[in-house]
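lol forgot to send this yesterday, sorry. struct tokens for the thing we talked abt
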């Protein structure tokens, strides 16, 4: 940076004063006008030496002032440059801080929005899940109630089955005992008739009496058969009178139907009681 100035002394002796950052005192001496430089040949003596001394003193003062001013200008320039760099750094830091602050705010805002969205999604999922859980709980309760009802029904059927099995066994035992009694009566009647035929010619009162006894016994046997089991007809179906008895009606427990008629009868043909169930039995 060049600085130009023109200084005048108190005696109106002046000269141009030019300076720059590269100007030295020697250059300044070279730029002085020749009229201002004392010449020893012109009036050399004591007067000339005094004038030269005074001029050198003023020149040194001006040079010193110039140097001080130049240093001040350099210091001001350095201060200005430093202040500019400081301001630039400060502005850069402020911009960075603002950007970081905006980034942090944006990050927090996005985080909050994400949290709210997740909360909404979780609430929807919880609502649907609770609805489904309530439905499943209701289905489980219904299934448990149905299972309990089926267990109760199964126990009831098992008890009824056991009761029917006991009843069937009782009927089988009764039929077996009746068959045995019938066979015994038949054997007794056959033996009596055989004995009567063998002794028919040996007659006499005793034979006639024996025959009468046999006839009476045979008549009693028939009455007993008719009374107990109704003769041979007890094996016939009470509905069609042709099929073999093999079905017991419940709850009246009458052995009164064949297998073919049992499918069409709604009531017992003996007592006319409503049929609730039936059991097929085996009769020899």
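and heres what i got for the seq, position by position
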């Amino acid at each position: 940076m060049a600085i130009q100035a023109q200084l005048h002394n108190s005696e109106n002796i002046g000269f141009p004063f030019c300076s720059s950052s590269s100007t030295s005192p020697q250059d300044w001496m070279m730029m002085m006008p020749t009229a201002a430089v004392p010449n020893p040949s012109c009036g050399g003596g004591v007067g000339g030496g005094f004038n030269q001394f005074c001029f050198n003193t003023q020149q040194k003062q001006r040079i010193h002032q110039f140097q001080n001013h130049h240093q001040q200008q350099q210091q001001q320039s350095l201060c200005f440059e430093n202040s500019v760099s400081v301001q630039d750094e400060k502005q850069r830091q402020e911009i960075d801080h603002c950007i970081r602050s905006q980034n942090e705010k944006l990050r927090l805002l996005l985080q909050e929005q994400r949290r709210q969205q997740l909360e909404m999604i979780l609430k929807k999922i919880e609502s649907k899940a609770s609805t489904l859980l309530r439905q499943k709980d209701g289905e489980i309760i219904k299934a448990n109630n149905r299972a309990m009802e089926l267990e109760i029904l199964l126990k009831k059927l098992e008890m009824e089955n056991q009761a029917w099995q006991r009843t069937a066994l009782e009927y089988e035992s009764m039929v077996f005992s009746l068959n045995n009694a019938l066979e015994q009566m038949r054997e007794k009647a056959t033996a009596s008739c055989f004995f009567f035929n063998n002794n028919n010619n040996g007659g006499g009162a005793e034979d006639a009496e024996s025959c009468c006894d046999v006839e009476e016994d045979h008549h009693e046997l028939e009455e007993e058969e008719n009374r107990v089991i109704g003769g041979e007809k007890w094996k016939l179906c009470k509905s069609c009178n042709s099929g073999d008895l093999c079905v017991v009606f419940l709850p009246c427990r009458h052995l009164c139907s064949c297998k073919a008629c049992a499918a069409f009868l709604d009531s017992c043909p003996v007592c006319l009681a409503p049929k609730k169930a039936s059991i097929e039995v085996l009769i020899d």
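Strands lie at 3-8, 14-19, 247-250, 254-257, 277-280. anyway ping me if u want another try
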